[in-house]
Amino acid sequence: MTSLSEQGAVVYADDSVLSASRALAERLGWPIWALQNPPTEVPQTFFLCYRDGCLKLLDKQTLKKGGLAVDVDPRPGEQHSYPAPKKDLLAQAIGKKTKSVIDATTGWAQDSLALFRMGYEVSCIERSPVMAELIADGFQRLAQKDWVLNRQLQTPKLMLGNAIELLAGLSDKPDCIYLDPMFPAKRKQTAATRKSMAILRDILGDDLDRADLFEAAWQATGKRVVVKSPDYAEPLGGKPSETYQGKLLRYDVYLK
Ligand SMILES: C[S@@+](CC[C@H](N)C(=O)[O-])C[C@H]1O[C@@H](n2cnc3c(N)ncnc32)[C@H](O)[C@@H]1O
């Protein structure tokens, strides 16, 4: 497998995003080129591009149009009030009395953002510099939403690095550490999940150090660790204290 830095390039559609695109390419050590003027040979398989008001991850099919960004709007069916009610399985697993949560595997930040909308104090860790750029762009857009501005809410803090190391260096223990590492896929996923998670798996691979991550989270948490896993996977930390079973996934809760 080629390294991630060889897989990616920054592309830009027009000069209005040129300086932001250059800065992004420099941070990632990626080449940069204009969308209208691609090099004769394009060895890369993934691209980042400022398009439609956000930073998007593209592959060769979506190079001209489309792409994936961190979606900061409520999920379909989610109540638009703030704080949103803590009633789904995720909230039950995190705990209604829990205040501070560290999401140690932020990815597309969909769980972090759902927790943020429910009023939890959320901090995020992500080790992929590419995902961290996409998340940071999403959080900047979140900070501009009326409901965030009007309430003067602080958007989640994002830390770039391996959570196994970052959790060991925390000065304060959060109430909860949340883990959703990449498990090997066993079945076809739904269209939306397939798109965003499959692309993540393609660029990052499975998280083979997830057992060490659980251990680090267990040492660093104040009260609980919650692990989201596919229903076919063995519990990451042995027998959980509680389990919240969904259709195709479950949340295993480990209480201190
Ligand atoms: C399955 S995705 C998480 C999806 C996320 N829950 C969401 O709602 O979009 C897993 C993410 O965790 C990150 N990750 C896995 N192990 C990590 C670690 N030890 N430290 C930091 N990030 C990690 C991966 O890079 C990947 O982006």
Explain what this protein looks like in three dimensions:
The chain has helices at residues 4-7, 18-28, 89-94, 110-117, 129-143, 146-150, 163-168, 191-204, 210-220; strands spanning 8-12, 32-34, 46-51, 54-58, 100-103, 121-126, 157-160, 176-179, 224-230, 242-245, 249-255. With 256 residues, it is α/β, with parallel strands linked by helices. It has 2 domains: 4-58, no CATH class; 89-255, Vaccinia Virus protein VP39 (Rossmann fold, 3-Layer(aba) Sandwich), CATH 3.40.50. The strands form 2 sheets. A 7-stranded mixed beta sheet has the order 7-6-5-8-9-11-10, with helices on both faces. A hairpin with a 2-residue loop joins strand 3 and strand 4 (54-58). The chain is globular, with a radius of gyration of 19 Å.
Write a compact overview of the structure shown.
This protein has nine helices and eleven strands. With 256 residues, the protein is of the alpha/beta class.
Instruction: Label the CATH architecture of the largest domain.
Output: 3-Layer(aba) Sandwich
Name the hetero compounds present.
S-adenosylmethionine
Helicity, in percent? 25-40%
Count helical runs: 9
* Secondary structure: number of strands: 11
Average of per-residue pLDDT values: 92
- CATH fold naming of the largest domain: Rossmann fold
Strand content: 15-25%
Spatial sequence of strands, sheet with the most strands:
7-6-5-8-9-11-10
